[in-house]
Amino acid sequence: MMKLIAALFFLLSNLAVHAEEGMVQLDLSRHGAHLPMYVMSNPHALATLILLPGGEASTGKIIDGKPSSGNFLARSRDYFFSENFNVVVIFRASDLAKLDYSYRVREHVAEIAKVINFSKEKFQKPIWLVGTSRGTVSGTSAAIALGDKAVQGLVLASSVTNNKIGAINTQSIGELKIPVLVVHHKYDACKICDPYEASLITSGLTSAPVKRFVLIEGGAKPEGDPCAAKHWHGFINYEKETVKLMSDWIKKPLS
User: CA distances (Å), 118 to each of 48, 115, 157, 213, 221, in order?
Assistant: First the structure.
Protein backbone atom coordinates (compact mmCIF):
# COMPACT_ATOMS: atom_id res chain seq x y z
CA MET A 1 0.00 0.00 0.00
CA MET A 2 2.78 2.43 0.92
CA LYS A 3 4.56 1.68 -2.35
CA LEU A 4 1.38 2.47 -4.27
CA ILE A 5 0.93 5.77 -2.44
CA ALA A 6 4.57 6.70 -3.12
CA ALA A 7 4.19 5.86 -6.80
CA LEU A 8 1.03 7.98 -7.07
CA PHE A 9 2.77 10.90 -5.31
CA PHE A 10 5.72 10.68 -7.71
CA LEU A 11 3.38 10.64 -10.71
CA LEU A 12 1.36 13.61 -9.50
CA SER A 13 4.54 15.55 -8.71
CA ASN A 14 5.84 15.00 -12.23
CA LEU A 15 2.53 16.08 -13.74
CA ALA A 16 2.66 19.27 -11.72
CA VAL A 17 6.21 19.98 -12.89
CA HIS A 18 5.40 19.55 -16.57
CA ALA A 19 2.29 21.73 -16.25
CA GLU A 20 4.60 24.65 -15.44
CA GLU A 21 6.69 24.37 -18.61
CA GLY A 22 6.19 26.56 -21.64
CA MET A 23 6.99 29.58 -23.76
CA VAL A 24 6.42 32.97 -22.16
CA GLN A 25 6.45 36.29 -24.00
CA LEU A 26 7.79 38.98 -21.68
CA ASP A 27 6.64 42.50 -22.57
CA LEU A 28 9.58 44.84 -23.15
CA SER A 29 7.53 48.07 -23.10
CA ARG A 30 8.83 49.20 -26.46
CA HIS A 31 6.39 49.34 -29.36
CA GLY A 32 4.88 45.92 -28.70
CA ALA A 33 8.20 44.06 -28.61
CA HIS A 34 8.47 40.97 -26.44
CA LEU A 35 11.23 38.70 -25.17
CA PRO A 36 10.65 34.97 -25.83
CA MET A 37 11.52 32.78 -22.84
CA TYR A 38 11.17 29.09 -22.14
CA VAL A 39 10.27 28.65 -18.49
CA MET A 40 10.54 25.44 -16.45
CA SER A 41 9.24 25.50 -12.89
CA ASN A 42 10.70 22.91 -10.53
CA PRO A 43 8.93 22.42 -7.16
CA HIS A 44 12.21 21.20 -5.66
CA ALA A 45 14.31 24.07 -6.99
CA LEU A 46 17.34 25.25 -5.06
CA ALA A 47 17.83 28.27 -7.34
CA THR A 48 16.67 29.77 -10.63
CA LEU A 49 19.05 29.58 -13.56
CA ILE A 50 18.68 32.13 -16.34
CA LEU A 51 20.32 30.58 -19.40
CA LEU A 52 21.83 32.95 -21.97
CA PRO A 53 22.47 31.25 -25.35
CA GLY A 54 25.19 32.39 -27.71
CA GLY A 55 25.01 33.36 -31.37
CA GLU A 56 21.90 35.26 -32.35
CA ALA A 57 19.94 33.54 -29.53
CA SER A 58 17.19 32.34 -31.85
CA THR A 59 14.54 29.97 -30.53
CA GLY A 60 14.60 27.93 -33.72
CA LYS A 61 11.21 26.51 -34.67
CA ILE A 62 8.69 26.10 -31.86
CA ILE A 63 7.75 22.42 -31.96
CA ASP A 64 5.04 21.15 -29.59
CA GLY A 65 5.42 24.40 -27.69
CA LYS A 66 9.17 24.01 -27.20
CA PRO A 67 12.10 25.86 -28.81
CA SER A 68 14.20 23.69 -31.13
CA SER A 69 17.37 25.77 -30.81
CA GLY A 70 20.49 23.60 -30.89
CA ASN A 71 22.51 25.96 -28.71
CA PHE A 72 24.37 24.16 -25.91
CA LEU A 73 22.34 25.75 -23.11
CA ALA A 74 18.98 25.62 -24.88
CA ARG A 75 19.34 21.95 -25.77
CA SER A 76 20.63 21.11 -22.27
CA ARG A 77 17.78 22.76 -20.36
CA ASP A 78 16.30 19.43 -19.22
CA TYR A 79 19.62 18.45 -17.63
CA PHE A 80 19.65 21.65 -15.55
CA PHE A 81 16.03 21.08 -14.60
CA SER A 82 16.84 17.53 -13.47
CA GLU A 83 19.46 18.97 -11.12
CA ASN A 84 16.68 20.68 -9.15
CA PHE A 85 16.71 24.16 -10.64
CA ASN A 86 14.05 26.40 -12.09
CA VAL A 87 15.15 27.12 -15.65
CA VAL A 88 14.51 30.22 -17.76
CA VAL A 89 16.03 30.24 -21.25
CA ILE A 90 15.90 33.67 -22.86
CA PHE A 91 16.09 34.27 -26.60
CA ARG A 92 16.37 37.24 -28.97
CA ALA A 93 13.78 40.00 -28.61
CA SER A 94 11.03 40.01 -31.23
CA ASP A 95 12.02 43.39 -32.69
CA LEU A 96 15.65 42.44 -33.34
CA ALA A 97 17.09 40.92 -36.51
CA LYS A 98 20.32 40.02 -34.70
CA LEU A 99 21.84 40.10 -31.22
CA ASP A 100 25.29 41.57 -31.65
CA TYR A 101 28.05 42.26 -29.15
CA SER A 102 27.37 45.96 -28.67
CA TYR A 103 23.71 45.24 -27.90
CA ARG A 104 24.71 42.56 -25.42
CA VAL A 105 26.76 44.97 -23.30
CA ARG A 106 24.09 47.69 -23.29
CA GLU A 107 20.41 47.13 -24.08
CA HIS A 108 20.51 43.43 -23.32
CA VAL A 109 21.33 44.20 -19.69
CA ALA A 110 17.96 45.92 -19.27
CA GLU A 111 16.21 42.91 -20.81
CA ILE A 112 18.00 40.54 -18.45
CA ALA A 113 16.99 42.77 -15.53
CA LYS A 114 13.35 42.31 -16.55
CA VAL A 115 13.84 38.54 -16.66
CA ILE A 116 15.42 38.61 -13.20
CA ASN A 117 12.47 40.57 -11.82
CA PHE A 118 10.05 38.12 -13.46
CA SER A 119 11.98 35.16 -12.07
CA LYS A 120 12.24 36.53 -8.55
CA GLU A 121 8.52 37.28 -8.42
CA LYS A 122 7.57 33.89 -9.84
CA PHE A 123 10.03 31.62 -8.05
CA GLN A 124 11.46 33.56 -5.07
CA LYS A 125 14.78 31.70 -5.35
CA PRO A 126 18.41 32.85 -5.75
CA ILE A 127 19.26 33.90 -9.31
CA TRP A 128 22.24 32.58 -11.25
CA LEU A 129 23.14 33.70 -14.75
CA VAL A 130 24.60 31.02 -17.03
CA GLY A 131 25.96 32.16 -20.38
CA THR A 132 27.68 30.40 -23.24
CA SER A 133 29.76 31.92 -26.06
CA ARG A 134 28.23 35.36 -26.82
CA GLY A 135 25.93 34.74 -23.87
CA THR A 136 28.98 35.14 -21.61
CA VAL A 137 29.23 38.75 -22.80
CA SER A 138 25.61 39.36 -21.80
CA GLY A 139 25.88 37.48 -18.51
CA THR A 140 29.03 39.26 -17.40
CA SER A 141 27.71 42.69 -18.39
CA ALA A 142 24.45 42.11 -16.54
CA ALA A 143 26.12 40.72 -13.41
CA ILE A 144 28.44 43.74 -13.21
CA ALA A 145 25.70 46.31 -13.89
CA LEU A 146 22.99 44.82 -11.67
CA GLY A 147 25.17 43.77 -8.73
CA ASP A 148 25.00 41.06 -6.12
CA LYS A 149 21.53 41.99 -4.89
CA ALA A 150 20.09 40.97 -8.26
CA VAL A 151 22.45 38.13 -9.21
CA GLN A 152 23.78 35.56 -6.76
CA GLY A 153 26.20 33.74 -9.09
CA LEU A 154 27.60 33.56 -12.61
CA VAL A 155 28.67 30.66 -14.83
CA LEU A 156 30.59 31.32 -18.05
CA ALA A 157 30.92 28.54 -20.65
CA SER A 158 33.02 28.91 -23.82
CA SER A 159 33.77 32.51 -22.93
CA VAL A 160 34.46 35.20 -25.51
CA THR A 161 38.04 36.17 -24.77
CA ASN A 162 39.26 38.50 -27.52
CA ASN A 163 38.64 40.65 -30.61
CA LYS A 164 35.02 41.47 -29.74
CA ILE A 165 33.17 44.16 -27.80
CA GLY A 166 32.47 42.81 -24.35
CA ALA A 167 35.16 40.09 -24.36
CA ILE A 168 35.25 38.97 -20.74
CA ASN A 169 38.69 40.22 -19.75
CA THR A 170 37.88 43.66 -21.22
CA GLN A 171 34.97 44.10 -18.83
CA SER A 172 35.22 45.32 -15.24
CA ILE A 173 35.14 41.80 -13.83
CA GLY A 174 37.07 42.91 -10.76
CA GLU A 175 33.79 44.47 -9.57
CA LEU A 176 31.99 41.12 -9.38
CA LYS A 177 31.29 40.15 -5.77
CA ILE A 178 29.57 36.84 -6.51
CA PRO A 179 30.79 33.26 -7.11
CA VAL A 180 31.98 32.79 -10.69
CA LEU A 181 32.63 29.51 -12.50
CA VAL A 182 34.47 29.54 -15.84
CA VAL A 183 34.13 26.38 -17.96
CA HIS A 184 35.87 25.87 -21.29
CA HIS A 185 36.62 22.95 -23.59
CA LYS A 186 40.27 22.08 -24.06
CA TYR A 187 39.83 21.72 -27.82
CA ASP A 188 37.63 24.75 -28.42
CA ALA A 189 38.86 26.01 -31.79
CA CYS A 190 36.80 29.19 -31.97
CA LYS A 191 39.29 32.02 -32.54
CA ILE A 192 37.53 34.44 -30.22
CA CYS A 193 37.14 31.89 -27.42
CA ASP A 194 40.66 30.74 -26.67
CA PRO A 195 41.04 28.12 -23.88
CA TYR A 196 44.27 29.61 -22.53
CA GLU A 197 42.83 33.12 -22.42
CA ALA A 198 39.72 31.74 -20.73
CA SER A 199 41.95 30.28 -18.01
CA LEU A 200 43.13 33.83 -17.21
CA ILE A 201 39.65 35.13 -16.44
CA THR A 202 39.72 34.02 -12.82
CA SER A 203 42.83 36.11 -12.14
CA GLY A 204 40.78 39.21 -12.92
CA LEU A 205 37.99 38.27 -10.51
CA THR A 206 39.66 40.05 -7.63
CA SER A 207 36.46 40.69 -5.64
CA ALA A 208 34.73 37.36 -6.24
CA PRO A 209 34.37 35.42 -2.95
CA VAL A 210 34.76 32.12 -4.84
CA LYS A 211 36.03 31.49 -8.37
CA ARG A 212 37.11 28.50 -10.39
CA PHE A 213 38.26 27.57 -13.88
CA VAL A 214 37.50 24.10 -15.24
CA LEU A 215 38.87 22.68 -18.50
CA ILE A 216 36.64 20.07 -20.11
CA GLU A 217 38.15 17.29 -22.26
CA GLY A 218 35.22 14.93 -22.90
CA GLY A 219 32.88 14.65 -25.87
CA ALA A 220 32.91 13.22 -29.37
CA LYS A 221 32.15 13.78 -33.04
CA PRO A 222 32.42 17.56 -33.41
CA GLU A 223 31.12 18.86 -36.73
CA GLY A 224 30.66 22.10 -38.65
CA ASP A 225 31.78 25.57 -37.64
CA PRO A 226 34.31 25.51 -34.73
CA CYS A 227 32.39 28.43 -33.21
CA ALA A 228 29.02 26.69 -33.45
CA ALA A 229 27.03 24.57 -31.04
CA LYS A 230 27.85 21.14 -32.44
CA HIS A 231 31.61 21.50 -32.13
CA TRP A 232 33.85 21.33 -29.04
CA HIS A 233 32.75 24.92 -28.46
CA GLY A 234 29.31 23.52 -27.60
CA PHE A 235 30.56 20.58 -25.51
CA ILE A 236 29.16 18.22 -28.10
CA ASN A 237 28.20 14.78 -26.76
CA TYR A 238 29.32 15.86 -23.32
CA GLU A 239 26.37 18.04 -22.42
CA LYS A 240 25.05 16.03 -19.49
CA GLU A 241 28.46 15.73 -17.84
CA THR A 242 29.20 19.43 -18.31
CA VAL A 243 25.83 20.43 -16.86
CA LYS A 244 26.41 18.09 -13.91
CA LEU A 245 29.75 19.76 -13.19
CA MET A 246 28.17 23.22 -13.38
CA SER A 247 25.21 22.21 -11.25
CA ASP A 248 27.34 20.64 -8.51
CA TRP A 249 29.38 23.82 -8.31
CA ILE A 250 26.33 26.09 -8.19
CA LYS A 251 25.03 24.03 -5.26
CA LYS A 252 28.37 24.23 -3.48
CA PRO A 253 30.82 26.80 -4.91
CA LEU A 254 34.41 25.93 -4.11
CA SER A 255 37.68 27.37 -5.42
Answer: 11, 5, 24, 30, 38
Average pLDDT, the chain: 93
Q: Are 115 and 38 in contact, with CB atoms under 8 Å apart? A: no
pLDDT, tens digit (0-9, with 9 covering 90-100), for 124-134 = 999 999 999 99
Interstrand relation of 34-40 and 22-27 (parallel, antiparallel or unpaired): antiparallel
Bridge partners, 184 (sequence order):
215
pTM for this prediction: 0.92
- Give the whole-angstrom CA distance, residue 87 versus residue 41: 7
**Pairing between β-strand 62-63 and β-strand 127-132 as defined by DSSP bridges:** unpaired
Which CATH number does the domain 23-251 belong to among 2.60.40.10, 3.30.870.10, 3.40.50.1240, 3.40.50.1820? 3.40.50.1820
DSSP string for residues in 150-210: T-SEEEEES---SSSTT-GGGS-GGG--S-EEEEEETT---TTS-HHHHHTGGGG-TT-SS
